[in-house]
Design goal:
heterodimer; A: 1180 residues; alpha/beta; eight-stranded parallel beta sheet; eight-stranded parallel barrel; globular; B: elongated
Chain lengths: 1180, 241
């Protein structure tokens, strides 16, 4: 749920009058200074000035106050309102490198005193000047275990204290890289601020790297969630990049933050020169950018970081003289965060699902992992829950006899970096909660507080709440008071009101961060007093959610069905959860995979469950004639809930050894493989026989099943993985000479084509069926192919390619082989998305004197290779399948004169307004933003080869597709594989015949032709051509840039890391993951392109015309269209060169190869047309 | 996710706007042209040509006086109440077709409604006329206060204090929008915060107001910003420096 709220500067601490800085910030933006480090270097301090600590600039606060004051003065002289102290490195990590960590306080205080003095000299009553105490990050990252929260917090207290005593007006925790370090720094500051009665402002700046996240992978909204509940007055960005890269992050902050923003960019991205980094952004460019941010995002503090000089700030001061404060509203959503991402408490169309299995008392698997101190096992259980669709993970380590604090530290610190979901810390012990809070940088939820032992000074309530406050956590509050657990509705409501009242009055919590648990009791015990428990809980939630609309509610669902058998529990839990959500429940602690969707529950079961929940027993003369509890027990008597997997394993183990080995391959069951193989070897079987008679037989079945459509690609790959490991285990026992090779095959993707997934799948299948492959990679010329075929003495050549162009290359390759007299040397098998059987087996086969065949998938390739090898080895019973020919002959189209006559596309379309002309770069787009544009069908069916036929799609998506997707997304963000980037822009243009002409929008060449795209025109139908969707020169009329039509382009990418990651998976024989990650990265690229097209429509002001759901969007249910080069309306890939020139995608590390392919593969470009009639068409 | 203090550090409380109290004539609507055209139409049926000076005579007058004036000019022996009823019903039709909102008002009404901020009309006009306007803008106002609802009219703050009471909110949670000198004075006398539209007359002095020439192109968020700055800046006065 989001609400429209004003982003406002918070008031000062209770009892304090607002400082002049706070008052000023409530009325207008103020300008701070620029870089400090380079200014110091320019003034060339002597070696002696550093007292032997060369490079430790903070020492100069003691030895050369004159030099530092001079720099401050240089900034005040150009008119800035505020300066930063020279204390960036006055922190533990930095000073410890010089062995002077005992001077944190002193050097901070000196730094503040110097700045204060200069500021006071420049200050007038009308024009006060302020000092920001700079607090840098140091080099120790607590989330990675370099140091601890407590150590950091204490040292930051020292620096904050020194700065405050020295006279600063605000503390600026800046250049932050690790959310846990920020938390330590801010809390050190808050401790120090408590000890003064001056109104000091607290400002936090994060640094978002060029990758689009903070150093450890935190998305901007994760940082916002974690930081803004820590008592800061402003949040902002500084360092790492210039303003261009900051725009998207500021947009996100501004859209979601309730506190105002601040921004101090570098003077552009550093250009590395022999003399060091150089920054090229001009003063005007900085001022332009900050002015733009200020009007769009309501910045309250602007300034500069690395590379900015007094000259830059002079320009900014000039510009900001007349800029009034811009008020902005935030669509605030409350929620929690991990180190990586933010998750709102209110989920659209569903409840927030909190996974319950990382619980020593609730999950047997977790308990045993904990008792064995198998920390990886504990992580795996959390990851499983991610796959099952949990939004947050409840973590409870309390176990009798163990050291909870130590267990919590071990597990929570591991969850911090490997689990991308926020953590709900669950313990009755304040010390255990504290241990978790001190290793988790994201915003946690505390589970829980209650009034069991009242709210007196020694109560748990009074011990836990200060932790909630210090760490800015949200809190689950149970309806338990001094009289016990609230059973009836009125009691629950009474305790909840008391909780809300006290939490907001005494601890400053807002309703949206309080999560009330109205308690779930078992209702299937048969005892009379429990019969009404569910009703009381549901009614309490209903009443409270009406009274406090922003309050959150949670229930531990499973408790309701305690005592029933597992099958009955699933039914009762699911129905109860559904009723609770209807009553206003917003979140639930559940085992997500044990909740059945209502439509999967039989009507009869549902009725009985409802009757039990609402106690609809029937009585005749005081005699119970219908008891839903009895009915439920009878209905589920003897019904067992067995997981499919466990059942299968049992079945497997019951088979004889050799059968088992075969089944292991077919089922892809790796667990226990080693044992079975050892047993087989011990029994005297030869390794080669095991491979040929058992394992390969299994692979053969896999191939057959796949061919019949009974086995899906991911499972085929899983089988291949098991095959691979089995062979690897057997190899040491094989004689050197005994080769299991059945033949050698060369595999290559042809020249100009970068797509290798198809070829690699063929490689996997051939290799694991006993063939030796030489997979020489992508973009292979015919020379490279022939060389490799000759030197490796292969038997067959397999060529692959995805592009239409590749079919032409393949034809050329065959021609070359013929020319060089090699046509008969190797049979050639061709495969790839753009090929057709008829093209290969008729057109190419007619031209090629040797053998050429088409393989539609890896298994047809396998069959062909097997046949070819059999023939070669003299098996006369074998022959290749006959060539398939077209039934009808192709009609040759007569080539026509190129027509440039404009079609009847409507003219006079109102021009959309665009926010800028030229190009922009955007990074760090949260995955969640474009994930909603992910085409699940294309991913699950197309890329992953899952079976969604005959109406099975939803079931497959629920059981296989989405769990795999969630696990993969978790892994991708924790590993930093996804580096989404966009370059896009708007350009003035007009059409001329079949051409689209772009003109310069600024500079000397304004209005003059800049680029020219040429598009084909349909020879029939509407005779459309892309250029027709733009005004022609006549319609433009004047030479004013604003009268020209406008076209947008974008290039989007998932970045290079994901390509590297897929490579690693392939090499590590993780076939299934390889397929999945590759497919995901390709579809995410598409999703990002679709999302960015939406953003462009939004910027052009017609996103409101969009279709309502994703299926409409994917079917072009919006105004205008997005065309990619290589598709029918604009087939000429080479014209992408012009897009490169316009957008400069080197900023997101995308380049165009000589064959006009984008690298990395997970990138795509498009031309975006706003004309309402523009839709896909085929220009033939 | 909010700004929160450490243990033993309470925070000064700032109020957020929960409701807007709109003065009617000159702030919310300009009904003069509509009155005039309704009067003209009605009187034309009696063959009387309604002139500007007739309009001027009736502006702001209580309904009874206007009705009597109409009856007199018409020369008809229909009861004056009939004229009053006729005029009101014609006004209703006209306003329903086109409420004569002043520039910028509609977007603020809409923004406030979608933000869940309650709104009311607080006018010194007669109940009948106020209800007329309220009815012409369905869905915006929780209630309307007219001259008939309070004993002492503007510049007494009573009507605004009554509005805050009816909203059940603190006066500082209510934004008052006014345009006339007496209206602005009434708003300021509550101690609450007033947006003063100074399109014509002079404005009383004081610090609990923000002066704007008009609401044209003004956003709700701006009004919230002025309200916030005012509160923040006056915090020191309560707490001592």
């Amino acid at each position: 749920m989001s609400a429209f709220k004003l982003s406002t500067l918070p008031p000062p601490r209770s009892g304090l009058a607002p400082s002049s800085l706070r008052k000023a910030l409530s009325l207008r933006p103020i300008v701070a200074d620029g870089a400090m480090g380079t200014m110091i270097q320019d003034r060339n301090p002597a070696l002696d000035d550093f007292l032997g600590h060369e490079g430790c600039n903070e020492v100069l606060n003691k030895t050369r106050p004159d030099l530092i004051a001079d720099i401050h003065r240089a900034y005040f002289e150009v008119g800035v309102d505020a300066i930063e102290t020279n204390t960036f490195g006055a922190n533990l990590a930095n000073l410890a490198e010089y062995g002077i960590e005992d001077q944190i306080y002193d050097l901070s205080k000196y730094g503040a005193e110097i700045a204060r003095k200069v500021a006071d000299q420049f200050s007038t009553p009308e024009n006060p000047k302020w000092v920001f105490g700079s607090i840098g990050p140091g080099t120790k990252l607590p989330s990675l275990g370099h140091t601890t929260y407590q150590i950091l917090k204490k040292s930051y207290y020292q620096s904050a204290k020194g700065l405050i005593v020295g006279g600063v007006d605000a503390l600026l925790v800046e250049t932050s890289q690790d959310l846990l370090q920020v938390k330590a720094a801010l809390n050190g500051c808050r401790e120090a601020m408590k000890e003064t009665d001056r109104d000091i402002l607290l400002i936090a700046h994060i640094t978002v790297e060029i990758t689009g996240t903070m150093l450890l992978g935190s998305e901007t909204l994760a940082a916002l969630s974690s930081i803004s509940s820590l008592g800061v007055d402003l949040i902002g960005l500084n360092c790492a990049t210039g303003p261009a890269e900051m725009s998207e992050h500021l947009r996100q902050l501004s859209k979601n933050s309730l506190i105002p923003l601040s921004c101090m960019p570098n003077a552009g991205l550093p250009v590395l020169t022999p003399e060091g980094a150089r920054y090229d952004l001009t003063p005007k460019e900085l001022a332009d950018a900050l002015e733009n941010f200020s009007s769009n995002f309501g910045l309250r503090i602007v300034g500069g970081c690395c590379g900015t000089t007094p000259a830059h700030l002079k320009e900014v001061v000039e510009r900001f003289k007349d800029i009034k404060m811009k008020n902005v509203s935030a669509e605030f959503e409350d929620g929690a965060s991990s180190l990586y991402q933010f998750i709102p408490f209110r989920q659209e169309n569903t409840y927030l699902s909190i996974g319950e299995r990382s619980n020593a008392n609730g999950s047997r698997a977790f308990k045993s992992a904990l008792l064995e101190e198998n920390w990886q096992g504990c992580i795996d259980i959390a990851k499983e829950q991610i796959g099952e669709g949990a939004h947050m993970i409840d973590l409870s380590v309390d176990y009798v006899g163990r050291d909870g604090v130590s267990d919590m530290r071990e597990i929570a610190s591991r969850y911090a970096t490997s689990i991308t979901l926020p953590i709900v810390l669950d313990s009755t012990e304040p010390a255990v909660l504290k241990a978790g809070l001190e290793v988790l940088g994201g915003r946690c939820v505390i589970n829980s507080v209650n009034y069991e032992d009242g709210d007196g000074p020694n109560s748990r309530f009074a011990q836990i709440m200060p932790l909630v406050q210090e760490h800015g956590a949200a809190v689950i509050a149970l309806t338990i008071d001094e009289d016990g657990q609230a059973r009836d509705k009125d009691w629950k409501v009474r305790v909840a009101r008391r909780l809300v009242d006290q939490l907001s009055r005494d601890y400053g919590l807002t309703q949206s961060e309080i999560i009330i648990d109205c308690l779930t009791f078992p209702i299937a015990t048969g005892q009379e007093e429990t019969r009404k428990d569910a009703i009381a809980t549901l009614e309490a939630i209903k009443e409270l959610s009406q009274e406090f609309p922003e309050l959150q509610f949670v229930l531990g669902i499973s408790n309701v069905s305690f005592g029933l058998n597992p099958a009955a529990r699933v039914i009762l839990n699911s129905v109860f959860l559904h009723e609770a959500v209807a009553s206003g429940l917003t979140s639930a602690i559940v085992h997500p995979s044990k909740i059945a969707p209502l439509n999967k529950i039989k009507e009869e079961e549902r009725k009985i469950a409802l009757d039990l929940i609402y106690d609809r027993r029937e009585f005749v003369d005081g005699e119970c004639t219908y008891d839903p509890l009895t009915a439920l027990l009878e209905m589920f008597d003897g019904v067992e809930l067995k997981s499919a997997k466990a059942g299968k394993l049992e079945e497997l183990l019951s088979k004889p050894l050799r059968e088992r080995l075969r089944l292991r391959i077919i089922d892809g069951e790796r667990n226990g493989l080693d044992n079975d193989l050892n047993q087989a070897l011990d029994s005297g079987l030869k390794p080669l026989d095991i491979i040929n008679e058992d394992l390969l037989e299994g692979m053969k079945v896999v191939g057959e099943l796949f061919g019949k459509g009974q086995m899906q690609l991911p499972f085929v790959l899983q089988s291949a993985e098991v095959m691979k490991s089995a062979v690897a285990l057997l190899e040491p026992f094989m004689e050197k000479s005994s080769s299991s090779e059945r033949g050698k095959v060369l595999l290559a993707t042809v020249k100009g084509d970068v797509h290798d997934i198809g070829k690699n799948l063929v490689d996997i299948i051939l290799t694991n069926n006993g063939y030796k492959t030489f997979n020489i990679g992508i973009k292979q010329t015919i020379n490279q192919i022939i060389d490799a075929a000759q030197s490796n003495e292969v038997d067959v050549i397999g060529l692959s390619g995805l592009l239409v162009k590749s079919t032409v290359i393949m034809r050329e390759n065959l021609f070359e082989l013929t020319e060089r007299g090699l046509a008969d040397k190797w049979p050639v098998i061709l495969g790839g998305a753009a090929l057709t059987r008829a093209f290969v087996e008729q057109d190419l086969a007619d031209e090629f004197p040797g053998t050429v065949r088409y393989a539609k998938d890896a298994f047809e390739g396998l069959d062909l290779v097997a046949t070819l090898m059999g023939i070669k080895q003299g098996d006369t019973s074998l022959s290749l399948p006959p060539l398939k020919r077209r039934l009808t002959q192709l009609k040759r189209l007569e080539s026509e004169e190129v027509s440039t006559l404009r079609s009847e596309v409507a003219r006079g379309v109102k021009l959309p307004t665009v926010p800028f002309l030229g190009s922009k770069v955007v990074k760090g787009i949260p995955t969640a933003d474009y994930l909603s544009y992910l085409d699940e069908r294309a991913l699950f069916l197309g890329q992953w080869g899952l079976d969604g036929s005959s109406g099975r799609f939803n079931e497959m998506a629920e059981l296989e597709g989405r769990p795999a997707l969630r696990r993969l997304l978790n892994e991708s963000s924790a590993q930093g594989w996804i580096e989404a980037g966009v370059v896009y822009g708007y350009f003035p243009c007009y059409s001329e015949g079949n051409d689209l002409v772009l003109v310069h929008h600024e500079g000397e060449k304004k209005g003059i032709e800049r680029a020219r795209f040429s598009f084909p025109r349909q020879s029939r139908d509407r005779r459309l051509c892309l250029s027709d969707f733009f005004k022609d020169r006549e319609e433009v009329g004047s030479d004013e840039v604003s009268d020209f039509d406008v076209v947008a382009f974008h290039i989007v990418t998932m970045g290079d890391s994901v390509s590297k990651a897929t490579d690693r998976l392939f090499k590590a024989d993780k076939y299934r993951e390889y397929l999945e990650l590759h497919g995901l990265s390709v579809q995410l690229t598409e999703a990002l392109a679709e999302y960015w097209h939406f953003r462009i429509r939004e910027e052009m002001g017609f996103a409101s015309e969009d279709g309502e759901d994703l299926s409409e969007i994917l079917d072009q249910g919006y105004r205008g269209s997005r065309y990619s080069f290589g598709y029918p309306a604009c087939p000429d890939l080479s014209q992408q060169k012009m897009i490169m020139d316009l957008l400069d995608p080197s900023r997101i590390n995308v380049e165009l190869s000589e064959e006009f392919q984008l690298h990395p593969e997970q990138s795509t470009s498009a031309i975006i047309v706003h004309h309402p009639e523009a839709k896909y068409f085929n220009a033939k | 996710m909010r700004n929160r203090d450490l243990p033993d550090q309470g925070s000064n409380k700032l109020f957020q706007i929960k409701a807007i109290a709109w003065d009617m004539d000159g702030t919310l609507v300009d009904t003069e042209p509509t009155w005039k055209s309704a009067e003209q139409e009605l009187m034309a049926e009696f063959g009387y040509r309604w002139l500007d000076e007739d309009s001027a005579h009736c502006i702001g007058g209580p309904m009874e006086r206007v009705a009597k004036y109409l009856q007199e000019k018409s020369g008809s022996d229909l009861p004056f109440q009939w004229f009053g009823d006729q005029l009101i019903s014609r006004m209703k039709d006209k306003l329903a077709k086109q409420p004569s909102l002043l520039p910028g008002v509609k977007s603020i009404l809409d923004e406030a409604r979608s933000a869940g901020i309650k709104q009311a009309i607080v006018s010194a006009s007669d109940r009948g006329i106020v209800e007329l306007i309220q009815a012409s803008l369905p869905g915006y106002f929780d209630f309307a206060i007219s001259a008939n609802d309070v004993i002492t009219s503007k510049p007494s703050p009573d009507c605004y204090l009554l509005a805050a009471e009816k909203f059940r909110i603190h006066i500082n949670e209510m934004l008052i929008i006014e345009d006339s000198f007496v209206g602005i004075s009434a708003g300021m006398a509550t101690g609450g915060f007033v947006i003063a539209l100074a399109h014509s007359s002079e404005v009383p002095s004081g610090d609990n107001l923000f002066i704007l020439p008009t609401l044209k192109e003004v956003k709700l968020i701006d009004l919230m910003g002025y309200h916030h700055s005012w509160q923040l800046n006056k915090l020191g006065e309560f707490n001592g420096k």
